[in-house]
Amino acid sequence: MEKFDVKKAYKELYAPSRRDFSLVTVPRFSYFAVDGHGDPNTATEYSEALEALYAVSYATKFASKKELDRDYVVGPLEGLWRADDPEAFVTRDKASWDWTMMISQPEWITSAELTASITAVGAKKNLAALDKVRFLELEEGLSVQILHIGSYDDEAPTLDRLHNTFIPANNLSFNGDHHEIYLSDARRTQPEKLKTVLRQPVSRP
Questions:
Q1: Over 90: is that where the pLDDT of 2 sits?
Q2: Residue 26 contacts by C-beta under 8 Å, 6 or more apart in sequence?
Q3: Distance between alpha carbon 77 and the CA centroid of its chain, in Å?
Q4: How confident is the model over 47-87, as pLDDT tens digits?
Q5: 18-47 pLDDT, tens per residue?
Q6: For residues 178 and 81, is the Cβ–Cβ distance under 8 A?
Q7: What was the pLDDT predicted at 189?
Q8: Residue 159 in contact with residue 86, Cβ under 8 Å?
């Protein structure tokens, strides 16, 4: 049985250049997602969201392999970030951030599988954010992205170039939440070696 791996199936979207911004068209993806607010380094609901997301995602993977005979690699953690002022990302005003943390799912995984996994996980574990996990479909369309290597707090200069140079120079407008894809495990990777895809949906006039 060949495992589906979203990073390999959509290599252009999960392995962009680290040197230059690139324009891509992002199709519709399905995710398990949890919404929250505040500094991800200190907000309890952030760690609770990740715990629930991973528990449900792995339960769904194992159920898919056993019951549907379809196996896959659990996708990387991703995050949608929003603030009233986009400059909050450049200035790293984390307390003002709203976020949606999410993990992509193969096309055959639906809200029915999510419901079943929440029930299965809930029977074994008491997770604070389990009832907050939802099924999300997102089609970002035209987007600008780049690979960032380094700590999350070092993203500011790249985001500044994206917001204040690349987007206006190419006559583009913001068209969705700032999107990050975490290709490294922050628990096991040195900050200077972290790999993160930075993506911004955009539109043309």
A1: no
A2: 13, 139, 140, 141, 142, 143, 199, 201
A3: 5
A4: 999 999 999 999 999 999 999 999 999 999 999 999 877 67
A5: 999 999 999 999 999 999 998 898 889 999
A6: yes
A7: 92
A8: no
CA count, 13 A, side-chain hemisphere, 146: 16
- The secondary structure of residue 50, as a DSSP letter, is H
**Torsion of the alpha carbons at 124, 129, 131 and 133, rounded to the nearest 10:** -110
Beta-bridge partner residues of 181: 78, 197
CA distances (Å), origin 18, targets 113, 149, 157? 36, 8, 13
Distance between CA atoms of 123 and 90, rounded to whole angstroms?
42
Question: Which amino acid is present at 48?
Answer: E
CB atoms inside a 10 Å sphere around CB 53: 25
Query: CA 14, CA 192: separation in Å to the nearest integer?
Result: 19
Whether residue 144 contacts residue 187, with contact meaning beta carbons closer than 8 Å, is answered with no
Is 56:186 a contact under the CB 8 Å cutoff? Answer: no
* CB distance 150 to 191 below 8 Å: yes
